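Class prep. Write one:
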Amino acid sequence: MSGAGAMSVCYASGLLEGCTAGESHLCREFAQTFVRCAAGVIYTAKPVALFSFAPSAETREREGEGLRDSLYELARVYGRELRSFGIGLERLSVRGGRMTLLVYRENLIAELLENDEDRAFLRAHGYGTKGVSDLLDSMRRRLAEYYGAVGVGRERPTFPHEIGLLFGYPLEDVIGFINGARFTCRGPWKAYGDVEQAKLRFDALSRVEGECRRRYRSGTTLARLLATA
């Protein structure tokens, strides 16, 4: 799979340069999921996103037993290419033809760690806060514990909801959710504070993500979308 070809993918692209027909189809399906689920990270509105990619039934049938290797290669190529745009992409697990991925911007994680309250909250929950790498390592371990327990005969741990802070949720909302408080309103997440302020946050994120998705659907290539984010 060609990295340049993979990044030239757009919503309605056909055969990509340096990619087979199967690879081109897989890239197109992945890019649509990536833009839909990680638009906030692409457009620098949030530090981290967590999402799953499941190829279509047609793709799974065509790839057959080679699907797992194809997903590994897909994650490797996009992980390498996205680094030049300041985005990290890591494969967390592949199970039953579904791949779970972590996508992030290190500069936004660094900004979060500069906030004393956010940093103290993460440290209190056992996360490394000495720097971006320290925090990412802690998050990877928590997520690996969560996803790694599936289907291995042991009790699945609780999802680490404290990382909602890294998904761009305000600290008061993360604490409110963890404590089981009564939420005041809901949008992309449940809010526990001032309703009007929460609605402003929801609307701002919706506009940013909507613009990212709209541009991709209109024919902008993935590389161009990232270059102009």
